Amino acid sequence: MKTKQIVKIAVDIAMTAVLLLLMTYELIGQVSHELLGIIMFVLFILHHILNSRWTKNLIKGKYTTLRTLQTVLVVLVLFSMAGSIFSGVMLSRHIFSFLPFGNGLSFARNLHMLSAYWGFVFMSLHICDDRLRYERHRINRNKH
Hints:
Blueprint: H1 3-22, H2 25-28, H3 30-50, H4 52-56, H5 65-91, H6 105-143
Helix pairs in contact: 1-3, 5-6
């Protein structure tokens, strides 16, 4: 296995672990939740840098039903992450407390919960889809 592939897998595992920790807000506390949110954001950016080939090929080739569904799923993950990040910064009481978000906290709280829970569903499906794609590729490679 190539180094880049190993790093991709490590980043994906780290993102999964951080996501699970983020879902335990009551157990880890506010400061830890905010720090983990920043770590998730960094991992999210790294994930997209490592998978930039996918983005470059977005408008190339034929769109089958499966490819369309996979692309829609990635866009839903992107929207849920953007919603979580935006609302998380607005709700921050520690790391981003210097930012003047006095109004709209109710909206931010609702957006954060909606983005987090739907994001969990979308990211779970995305992980399963990636795993299935990897297995199909591995099986096809071994046939030849």
